[in-house]
Design goal:
Blueprint lengths: L1 E3 L3 E2 L6 E2 L1 E8 L7 E2 L10 E8 L2 E15 L6 E3 L11 E7 L12 E4 L10 E2 L3 E4 L5 E8 L2 E10 L2 H6 L5 E9 L2 E2 L1 E5 L4 E6 L3 E8 L6 E12 L4 E9 L2 E10 L5 E9 L4 E3 L4 E4 L6 E3 L16
Parallel strand pairs: 4-13, 14-23
Antiparallel strand pairs: 1-4, 2-3, 4-5, 6-7, 6-9, 7-8, 9-11, 9-12, 10-17, 11-13, 14-20, 15-19, 15-21, 16-20, 17-18, 21-22, 23-24, 23-25, 25-26
Length: about 300
């Protein structure tokens, strides 16, 4: 998803208009400006933009102005309903997504929810971009994720003897998470990225996935968007396989905004266990992966095929 701003000027050469570009990515010192796979916005996307005097948010130049994308990827342009003519004095700007034009909108107190019903989207924000002026009219916004993603992958590997004995292939029909490392409601300040969480609840996901092929190995996965809490906490993963519950718990999990916490589990006829290290990965595919350095987890062996 991307937003792009370009510099234009009218017939008066002294007037220079601010233009923007925008993508979703990573805005840090080591990988600043990197556009991740999936980092461009669809044509017709709307973002809200604030422009103020540099270091003075009370000196408002543009107050929650909607910019709409037109075109795809590197050819994308961002169009505002009115022009903003720059001066020689430096200004600053920030952007957020999705745009909210309601009269009660407060950029410092944007509600956050995690409905987990297929309608959930992530909220995005940028840090303030400074030194915008006639000499530097093009603003490149790199929007960052507010929410964290949890991805659980279950790998299945039953023995040949077990596969020969069963009369059907196991089905993973539901998954749920619960714990204290995340919340499902709260609000955030789009000018700072600060999150305040207000509620922690379990989230469930209904799936219907065949988990194994005869005499072979297969896997299935599901994902949740959540709000990371300020402190590490617990994460319990509950799976339903052939109508029977299986669970696995982890301690000292610290979720991070904009990163996906990947948990890979292995199910056999004896137990459910962690099959590899818990990893942090970039939200979009193709990014870097780092090893989770918390507790290795607490295993509760359960045979989903017990009667």
């Amino acid at each position: 998803m991307t937003m792009t701003a370009a510099c234009t000027s009218n017939s008066d050469a002294e007037q220079v208009e601010m233009t923007i570009s925008a993508t979703v990515g990573i805005d840090d010192e080591t990988r600043a400006g990197q556009v991740l796979p999936g980092g461009y916005f669809d044509s017709g996307t709307q973002v809200g933009v604030f422009v103020t005097g540099q270091g003075n948010t009370a000196d408002i130049k543009q107050n929650n102005v909607v910019y709409t994308s037109s075109g795809e990827m590197t050819a994308q342009k961002w169009i505002a309903p009115s022009r903003l003519v720059l001066t020689d004095q430096p200004w600053q700007a920030m952007a957020y997504f999705p745009y909210d034009g309601s009269p009660s909108f407060d950029v410092t107190n944007i509600p956050l929810t995690c409905p987990n019903d297929g309608t959930d989207i992530d909220n995005l924000y940028t840090s303030w971009k400074t030194n915008i002026s006639k000499a530097r009219p093009n603003v490149r916004f790199i929007l960052q994720h507010i929410k964290a993603k949890i991805r659980v992958q279950t790998n299945v590997k039953f023995s040949t003897a077990y596969n020969e004995a069963v009369t059907h292939k196991p089905q993973w029909t539901a998954a749920a998470i619960e714990g204290t490392c995340y919340a499902t409601s709260g609000h955030y300040n789009a000018q700072t990225g600060e999150i305040v969480t207000t509620g922690t609840n379990g989230l469930s996901s209904v799936i219907d996935e065949e988990l194994t092929e005869a005499f072979g190995t297969h896997y299935a996965y599901t994902e949740w968007l959540v709000l990371p809490t300020a402190s590490p906490g617990t994460l319990t993963i509950r799976l339903t396989i052939d109508g029977k519950p299986v669970k696995y718990s982890l301690d000292n999990i610290q979720l991070r905004s904009g990163l996906c916490t990947e948990v890979s589990l292995l199910l056999d006829e004896q137990s459910l266990r962690l099959s590899s290290q818990v990893l942090y990965a970039d939200w979009e595919s193709g990014g870097t992966t780092t090893t989770y350095d918390g507790d290795t987890g607490l295993m509760e062996p359960t045979n989903p095929n017990d009667n």
